[in-house]
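Lab manual, section 2.4: Encoding a predicted structure.

Procedure: take the sequence of the chain (377 residues), apply the prediction step described in section 2.3, and record the output as structure tokens. A sample record is shown.
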Amino acid sequence: MTLSVTLLAGAGLLLRSVEALSRVDPGFDPSRVLAFRLSGNWGETQDRDRLVRRIDVTLEELGALPGVESAATSWSLPGVPRQYQIEFELIEGRSDSEPPLVAEWRTVSPGYFRTLRIPFVAGEACRPRPDASAAPHVLVNRSFADQYFRGRSVIGLHLSWEAASRTGRIAGVVHDVRERGIDHDPAPTVYACDSAPNPFPWFVVRTRGEPLAMANAVRLKLKEVEPLRSVYDIRPLEEWIGGSYAQNRLRTVLVTIFAATALFLACLGVYGTLSYVVSLRRREVGLRLALGGVRSDVVRELVGGALQVVGLAGICGLALSIAFTRVLSGMLYGVSPQDPLTLVTVLGIVLAVGSLAALIPAARATAVQPMRVLREE
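Recorded output:
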């Protein structure tokens, strides 16, 4: 019974985490978005202009496909756990007392925000760079603006990175997006507007219907445009996001199964033990009933004795679950390891099930005919 309480507490916390994740607003719309990559090699970076033209042509061809609303590229997929923080410098200068500008770094094509339906807060949208040597437009999210420039407009300021080898002008502010994963709060993020973050960026294509229904058309078009390249890792964006948390869901299912099994075995133990105790006290129960004992009092006494054991086991299980749930803390979201609602609910379930397991043999014992039991040897 103690083990069942411990496992039920862990299962309850994991289930609440899964439920909390399902209600999270990621800051973008992942529905009807097909994500994939197109093969490339780092040697293409020697001719940056050619690489950018190649990817821009691919985006134009994808956007012209029937059933496609828009297409874009990105250094990584939003909502899929991945972190890449760098430090930026403000060209206009900041005081030494102000914190360093540390933020997540993402390189995306100008159509990224339209494709993922990320709303703008202020400023203007990304614009393509006229050539590879031109400074890219830069967008920041609301968290970046609020954390480092509260009460001040960031539009028009200039950021530099990679030891001041690259610079960009902040053209606008966008809504917060959970770029580092659905289970991570939005962090300050800087977006550089560049369609070619690398020779094989992620392509995201918003479709008018089911994304997988467009997969074959996308493959055929890319084979026509880029016959020497291959499409790989093609899957709806929602599946990419869901697959990132498949291990946590599997752990939740396994712990829930173990907890249900432990509770079932514990109830069998309560039922069997009390049935055995009742069989030993069969003549005593018959004598009490024959002398005018109230059946409900007898049932209450038998069930009460069983519940004392169940209650003690429940308290021990709660104490053990506090240590057990700390191990799960890294897999929890939106709920603390010692969530009182979960622990109280688990204890209530165990007491209710234990009471039912004890009530059945107790009620059966009081249903006997007293005189018949007393005649038995």
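Check your result against the sample. Residues 220 and 363 are 72 Å apart (CA to CA).
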